Amino acid sequence: MDLLKAYFSISGYHYADWLNGDTVVSLRDAPQGRAILRHNVNTGEITSLFETQEGIRDLHLARNGDIFFSLDTAGTENPQIHRLKDGKGEAIPLTFDKATAFQIGGLSSDGRSLLVSSNGRDKRSFDIIGIDIESGKSQILIQNEDHYNIPAALSKNGRYLLVNKLRGGGDNPLWLIDVEERTAIAAPEIDRKASYSSPVWKQDHSGFYCVSDDGSDFPYVGWYSMEDQTFTPKYLFDWGVDNIALSQNDRYLAINVNEEGYSSLYVVDLVEDVRMNIPATPKGVISEYLPFHWAPDSNRLLFTLAGSTQASSLWMLDLEKDAFICFDTPDMAGLTSSDFVEPELLHFKSFDGLEVPYFLYRPKGLEGSMALMLDIHGGPEGQARPGIAYKELLHYMVASGIAVVEPNVRGSSGYGKKYEHLDDVEKRLDSVKDVRSLVEDLVERGIADPKRIGVMGVSYGGFMTLSAAARMPELFCCAVCTVGMFNLVTFLENTANYRRAHREEEYGSLKKHRNILYEVSPVAMVDNITGPLMIIHGKNDPRVPVSEAYQAKEYLNARGVEVELLVYDDEGHGLSKLKNKLDCYPQVMRFIEQHMAIR
Length: 599
Known about the structure:
Helix content: 10-25%
CATH superfamily of the domain at 341-595: Alpha/Beta hydrolase fold, catalytic domain
CATH architecture of the domain at 341-595: 3-Layer(aba) Sandwich
Shape: globular
Oligomer: single chain
Mean pLDDT: 92
Number of strands: 37
CATH class of the domain at 341-595: Alpha Beta
Radius of gyration: 24 Å
Distance between the termini: 14 Å
Low-confidence stretches: none
Structural class: alpha+beta
Strand order of the largest sheet: 30-31-33-32-34-35-36-37
């Protein structure tokens, strides 16, 4: 298993920002844990500022030189805020309530208070609070009664905080908080469902650019004016915009577009109002969930990019040199790009004629009918995109001679709002039917050996895995479910309080759709599940409680079906610690290879 350990020992950068014109601070995952690092861009020198075995969920660089971050413990997703004063020294905890989640918004205009969202008052919703960074005392600035209120962007003068209200189902508006007046208004004010994200303020806080899908199937870039409180569409593309970055001189707007899974960067010169001619973006994925940043000189754009043959690395677009520059590549644990494969992008027609995309990772040197694993993404409003990060097992399976397919079944993001909502509530099983059509396509093309097809997935992908095992057991020789839902009713009853209403927008509500929730769940067809089945879960999972795993095992054992269950006491929604991965995944590979008759 030395090769398997190597795949799980790859490092990767997941976030980076400019501390000043010569210095970058990054967040890196490595076998020994997670680390906050300082990089000298000119000399290449790297200094570790903080290291941990736990999860770092936020990283915020303040204008005064402080570095703030949130530290999760054992996967509970109740991160506590810490401060590195002047960007160095001991990490000073600012919060101490391990039953409460905190998310960082930025420093107030006087530099004394950290603006934060917190569900300390009521576990069902997040208030906006201010924490004195010296005394640790806090006060509520805006009290909320709805659930998710996530800090999105603080104006340059520290007065206006934009907050994303994640209501679910594409209903994610921005609200504008005046920190001094302690008021909050919708920005813009609308009476319909729409998504607004990735806001970036102009220096004079006259307004902000952001990404929205209001009135469009695909997200685009728009401008919100503070003076007249209006929102105007500005830059539209044939595909959806993931996120944006505004240079510190307000001249250049970088736009990250998701073009069928791969990232393409565009830069608009706002002074000339023209799209600039820049080199082609390196092939890979720029994170759609985290911001990317321009340097103080406004000519260098910093971002992380992950490819299918290269771990997530630190990159710059240098406008003066008219070039993309990779200035730090993480440790690949002895592996090289030749130990990975670039997937093929293919499509199939589903049962109702819908065209569905998928990525095929074909083992090198293999042709014809192969042992094959379907790996279904989570979300469900997620998207399978090429890369190495979080795909270590996928790449190891391919290296071991098992082809892997990642489908973007209906309900996936990245293909427009209409596509994303094709699986809502009573249409849930249509996405499961896509799986059957996919298997038929793979067999017809001569890609998959029909007797050696497995299915696996994490979170919603776990739900899809259990659904496939329950509704088409004859198609699969084995199934591996990680932190998946067995019963959508009990899942919604037991998920974290603040998550329930958000997820009900997608799945249906306990009040209105209880019967539908049960009927579309794997539990409704439990008698059809014959195995072989492996279930993996973190004991502290706040999203999909471990009770879903115990429930599935109990139901199936009562019917004489053997289930291999692996539960990890110090994990949450998936496995993050190397020691647990090296315990779990050799067992997973043994299970898969046994039932696919690999060895």
